[in-house]
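Researcher: We're teaching a course module on how sequence relates to structure. For the next exercise, students receive a sequence and then see the predicted structure as tokens, so they can try to spot secondary structure elements on their own. Here is the exercise chain.
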Amino acid sequence: MNATSAPTSARVADLLAGLAIAGLLVPEAVAYSGIAGMPPQAGVIALFIGLVCYGLLGRSRFAIVSSTSSSAAVLAAGTLALAGNDIVSRVAIGATLVLFGGVCFLIAGFARLGSLSHLIARPVLRGYTFGLAIVIALKQLPHLGGWPDLRGDFVPLLVAELVRTSNQVHIITLCAGLIALALLFLCERVRRLPGSLLVIALGVIASGWLSAHNVSLTGAINLHMALGVPTWPASGQWLPSVELAAALLLILYAESYSSIRGFALKHNDPVQPNRDLLVLGVANVLSGLLHGMPVGAGYSGTSANEAAGAQSRWSGLIAGAAVLLMVLLLLRWIERIPQAVLAAIVIHAVSKSWRLSVFRPYLVWKRDRLLALAAVLAVLSLGILNGLLVAIAFSLVLLLRQLSVARLSVLGRLAGGHDFVDIAQHPDAVQPPGVLILRPEEPLFFANAESVLTLAREQVQKKSGVKQVILSLEESPDLDSTALESLGDFSSWLQSLGISLRVARLKDDTRALLLRAALPQLSPQALNNWSVEDAVSACSAPSSTGNPT
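Model: And here is the predicted structure for the students to work with:
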């Protein structure tokens, strides 16, 4: 949809949506800065840059690009690991990590790696989000109730520390935070009632009295959007910095692409993942240069934009202009938002990720239950960043384990027709005389090729009178060098027994590869079988006796 040619009604809808979400996003941006251990202006700068960059360069009608709770938590873990508790160093290194993350986005975009988000399986992403929401909420409790700040990400230690310091709770701060949290949950039940704006307005009104009773306020926000030279990592910090930037890329793009694609499918809009990578790269590079937060298309902001009636990217641009006006005209009021209110806003925002119903499909399907649970436990026990990396690695290990399991079916003709099915599942299927038809049930590659073809040897030895073997490779869109060598060894073994081999149901690319490989036991005629039926017919032809040449 072209925003410049939108009808007047659509522009009015975009105007109202942009104004509505601006009021929601500014306090969230300030609150997410606290999660990341960055000054409040870092979130505001990132919000403005994200809205403007995506509004001008992006393609999704509904995507709202701003700082997100997950990326803020990853940034906090990274800066703490590299700079410790020195706030000045953490801010400098944080800006560098955001810049590096943006560069990673640009490299991925130019390399057309739009499918990068698929590296994080959905059960991993949901489990990670669930665990992350628990960690974020726990670490916001000190701001909600006046506890001393918590260090680290290990949940049992966080809970133990909260219990140990429970006698230091500031009662007035806790009451203010709980009232704000209760109002936010109550406002959910009233359609179009902006709960965040309501609690912020009440908090600002009461800020004088609260401050007099030692309730902490947001404090000064020093906005000066001047480009800064990044603080380059020390010699021993380059590798960790690049790893952290790559982690930001993975989590931001997985979250962003999920939001963008979800609403595009809902409204039948096109998706351009490679362009989104580039746009997010530009936004994060600018945010890093201006000492802002990492930005992505978070689900909460995007869904709020759609719910507010947005029709085009103009809503994001209008929201960016509204953010700028709010900062220019209302900054001194934003500085008076009680920290307990901001903590309540964060806890309310992440509470949507606590719903156990997101795991129900995995229980019903009996698939990936262990993977989702491992992602949750990894975040709770290993921390935000290490938990994400371990969960991704665990999902890849499970994938390799599944693919490496040797599974081979013996096929027979079903009911005298043209269909060939697994005789273990269909006992009435008939095997052609003198012909053994085998089908690997997973793609052949280095981890399973040898074991699958070992099973094939066993099947040949079990059946007497075999003159022809047909190998159906419909599950293998490609073959690596290990699979090629194993296939050559299997063919040579068959040839030594006087048994010929034909390969059926080859993909075009796989057939071209086998022709280039020119395995001496596999002639081009042995590869010209588009179906198992064709291969069986070729085996029964008089000219096919012996090894095809």
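Model: If you want an answer key for the exercise: The CA atoms of residues 78 and 244 lie 6 Å apart. The radius of gyration is 30 Å.
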